[in-house]
Amino acid sequence: MQDSIAPNEFDLSLINALQIAPRASWTDLSPILEADPTTLARRWKRLQDDGLARVTAFPRPSVMARLNMAYVELSCRNGTIEQVASVLAEHPDTLSIQFIAGSHQLLLTVVPGAGLADYLLNWVGGFPDVISYHVHVVTGMPYEAQHWQVGALSPGQRRELRALVPPIESRTDSDHITELDQRVIDLLCNDGRVGYHDIAERLGIAPATAARRLNRLLREGILGLRCDISRGAMGWPVAAVLWGSAGADALDRAGDLGDRIPEVRLCSTLAGPENTHLVVWLRTAADLVRVERRLLDELPGLRIADRRVVLRTFKFMGGIVDAGQRFTRTVPLRPRAMQRA
Predict the structure, then answer these.
(1) Sign of the CA dihedral 180, 186, 187, 189?
(2) Do 241 and 312 contact (CB within 8 A), yes or no?
């Protein structure tokens, strides 16, 4: 790892650009960010090497909809939380793991390829140090995490960047993934900006084949790409998870919730009496009260039943996170297991 660097406004602008257009070339980004391509590439590499930011792959909702995506809260025996989290983190179906303040210690985001029952009975159920668990099955995602932005660019810059993003086809029957596709996915999970020639060289295929395979995964909505950050290092040291309930009319208004309340990172709908799950990123813990008031104003009828502050993140969308909350390595997704029989 290179010497650590403190992120600045230029870094935030670069990250914001890659949140909108994750695979845009440095040449295309250069006039928008007013920096030469070499500078952009060098700065991004340092952010990556320092564990502050990364571009990675994630399963699109069209894939997750066929599965029982869920949030699983675990209670563990005293002194075993880190050990349990460390083992759970190696499972590709466990996308994220957070240590939270609340009635349970760990909060998992899971997309179990073999089914939620199998994941709970044969994986989580095999941990003697897990005392109990509570499951929230996800039924929808009105506001997805990849739409959240650091807000460092002007409206005009954002428009120019959106023009660089290829459209996604509305396909619901195109989730066939071959062994070669999976090898491409492994590379994308580790570096979502990996080039076609690099893929071809590592996999022993033609660059045209690499381009065709990668673009099909993205175009048909099997995978998406997102730019993730080390939250605390970038100025959002506090995260909170809110559980509540809201009517259908209110949830219909949540599609642009993050645009209206910048602290909102994610909004999911759930099966159960508490049908709403929200994640907010904050500058300080005191901001939670203000953000809650905004949420109640923007989503009439919303009732917040519980609040859990995130104390530490062990894994974030496949990325292993160290005690300093920086990315160290990636456990690639295994969407081949996500296909329909």
Answers:
(1) positive
(2) no
Question: Encoding tokens for residue 29?
Answer: 């980004």
C-alpha span between 239 and 260 (Å, rounded): 18
Strand partners, 280: 240, 264
How many C-beta neighbours within 10 Å does residue 162 have? 10
| Predicted structure pTM score | 0.93
Give the per-residue pLDDT at 2.
45
Cβ count within 10 A of residue 329: 11
> What is the token pair recorded at 180?
């070669």
CB 100 within 8 A of CB 321: no
Interatomic CA distance for residues 66 and 69, integer angstroms: 9
Q: Which amino acid is at 52?
A: L
Structure tokens of 11? Answer: 């870094």
Q: Band of the pLDDT at 62, cuts 50, 70, 90?
A: low
Please check whether residue 181 is in contact with residue 217, taking contact to mean a CB–CB distance below 8 angstroms.
yes
d(CA 254, CA 248): 10
Q: What is the pLDDT of residues 264-284, one digit of tens each?
A: 999 999 998 899 999 999 999
Within 10 A of 18 (CB to CB), how many other CB atoms are there?
26
Helix (H, G, I), strand (E, B) or coil at 251: helix
DSSP 144-202: -GGG-----S-HHHHHHHHTTSPP----SS-----HHHHHHHHHHHH-TT--HHHHHHH
Q: What pLDDT score was predicted for residue 174? A: 55
| 311, HSE (Cβ side, Cα atoms, 13 Å) | 11
Q: How far apart are CA 173 and CA 168, in angstroms?
A: 14
The pair of structure tokens assigned to 97 is 């793991």
Residue written as tokens 């809110």?
A: 242
Helices (H), the chain: 9-20, 26-33, 37-49, 61-64, 81-88, 116-118, 155-162, 179-190, 196-203, 207-219, 248-252, 257-260, 287-298
